[in-house]
């Protein structure tokens, strides 16, 4: 099993969710986050005062899938979330050693 962690722009969430659902992803966790990388923030003017926005709003997706599906999920997220502009996000893939469905006690692939 693989854990895929992706950060994407907030306005891309619904489009990415639909694309992942269409390839068979049955669930994901979504968190609103703030961060910076190459984009490293920007300045904005609010009520006449200029201020620095050091952290940019992003969405973090966490998806656990069978190892055989991981490449397809990464490719789908990458293609769907891409705008071609700085700050499109990052994708990380980690190994998952164990999964348990709390309600039924099913483990590993059955718990997904």
From TrEMBL:
Ranges that cross the membrane: none
One Pfam match, given by its short name, reads P-II
> Which GO MF terms does the UniProt record name?
ATP binding; enzyme regulator activity
InterPro entries in alphabetical order: N-reg_PII (IPR002187), N-reg_PII-like_a/b (IPR011322), N-reg_PII/ATP_PRibTrfase_C (IPR015867), N-reg_PII_CS (IPR017918), N-reg_PII_urydylation_site (IPR002332)
Q: Name one GO cellular component term.
A: cytosol
Record's keyword terms, sorted: Nitrogen fixation, Nucleotide-binding, Phosphoprotein, Transcription, Transcription regulation
Q: Which residues form a coiled coil?
A: none
State any GO BP term from the record: regulation of nitrogen utilization
Family from the record: Belongs to the P(II) protein family.
Q: What does this protein do?
A: P-II indirectly controls the transcription of the glutamine synthetase gene (glnA). P-II prevents NR-II-catalyzed conversion of NR-I to NR-I-phosphate, the transcriptional activator of glnA. When P-II is uridylylated to P-II-UMP, these events are reversed. When the ratio of Gln to 2-ketoglutarate decreases, P-II is uridylylated to P-II-UMP, which causes the deadenylation of glutamine synthetase, so activating the enzyme.
Q: Describe, as the record does, how this protein assembles with itself and its partners.
A: Homotrimer.
Quote the protein name from its UniProt record. Answer: Nitrogen regulatory protein P-II
């Amino acid at each position: 099993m693989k854990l895929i962690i992706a950060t994407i722009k907030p306005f891309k969430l619904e489009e990415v969710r639909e694309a992942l659902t269409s390839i068979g992803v049955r669930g994901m966790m979504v968190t609103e986050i703030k961060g910076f990388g190459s984009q490293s923030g920007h300045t904005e003017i609010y009520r006449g005062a200029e201020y620095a926005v050091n952290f940019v709003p992003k969405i973090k997706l966490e998806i656990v899938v069978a190892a055989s599906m991981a490449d397809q999920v990464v490719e789908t997220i990458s293609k769907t979330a891409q705008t071609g502009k700085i700050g499109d996000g990052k994708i990380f893939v980690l190994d998952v050693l164990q999964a348990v469905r709390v309600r039924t006690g099913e483990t590993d692939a059955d718990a997904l």
